Structure formats: C-alpha cells, structure tokens
Amino acid sequence: MTDANIAQTEPVLVAVPGKNRRRRLIVLNQLDDFNRLIAALSDYGRPERAAFEATGNYHRALAYRLGRAGFEVKLVSSVALARTREALNNSWDKNDPKDAQVILHMMQIGNEQFYHDPMLCGTNDLQELSNTHDIVSRSKTELWHRVLTHYLPLYWPEAERFHRSSRSDWFNCLNSSSRKYTGTDLGSCSRVRISITC
What we know:
CATH topology of the largest domain: Nucleotidyltransferase, domain 5
Shape: elongated
CATH class of the largest domain: Alpha Beta
Order of helices and strands: EEEHEHEHHEHHH
Radius of gyration: 29 Å
Largest sheet: 6 strands, mixed
Strand order of the largest sheet: 3-2-1-4-5-6
Number of helices: 7
Number of domains: 3
Strand content: 5-15%
C-alpha cells in the first residue's frame, strides 16, 4: 500500500512499503497538480492511502479529487498532530515538511480518522441545510437577546417579567400599559386582531 500524506499546504510525502526512501512532491491547489499527484501515485501499482490535516477549505478539493480517483482518504486530527509532533521532535516548532513527516508517522501507526466527503457520500445538500438551520437559529437567538437586553429595558421596562410567559400574559400587560399611558383599551380597538392557535 502506498502511503501519501498531505500536510496543511503543498508538501506531499510519499512512502512505499519496503523502500527506505521517501518521495517529496509539491502540489498546488490546482486541478493540474492534483492530476499529476494522482498519476504519480498510480504509477506504483499498489493500493493508495492518503491522509491530511483538515485546514480551512484547502483540503476539500484535493480530498474530493483523490476520493473520485479511488484513493482511501483519511483525516488526521490537528490536536493529535500537534501532540505527536511535540513528542517526536521534543519541540513545538512547526513547519509544513515536518508536519508531512509526522502525518506519515501517524499513518504508519494507524492514528488517523475516517474522512467522509459530503459530495462523494451524497450528503452535501443535507449538510448545507443543516448549516443554514444553524445560522438561522443563531441569528434568532442573537436577535432575541438583543431585544431582551437593549430594547425592552429601554422602551418597555415592565415587560421583562413577562418574557417567558404566554401570549395572553403579554397582551394583558400591553393592554394595561396602554390604558395607563394612553387611556385606550386595546381590546376595544377594531384594528387589533388576536389569533389563537392550538
């Protein structure tokens, strides 16, 4: 099995079982370089396994291309990589060629994780929908906290005790405030419509 590791940026280190020398390649984030890497690894005539540290979005295009070419794609945890690098080199110093060697070592001892590419697994739409739901939920919570901590205390301070109550409590509080400040009863207004859903 040919092992290739892809560090954070461009260095790729190729190790072939039974051979002492390792081959080092530089791969840019371009389709031509991805194809060149796939051709170089396929020349060995062995099953290929690639591992990389996920950083930002750089790894996604390369992992997708390697997965489409039939490679076994693995992921190396950033934390595990940092701890292993510190243990092997007795230093926290970091650079890409050193990371490539540490990732190769982690592949050889089996300290890697599965990588599920959402495009290859067919879960990309579900992942995007989940991310959209997360963004909407966070925005809703952020808006609610902004209303609670700024607008209600500023414009309607007596509403704080009702913010966890039902709608009818809110309406009664609003109606009593309206009577107190304007002298009108909101229940008698023809323009106010109350909808109750069960």
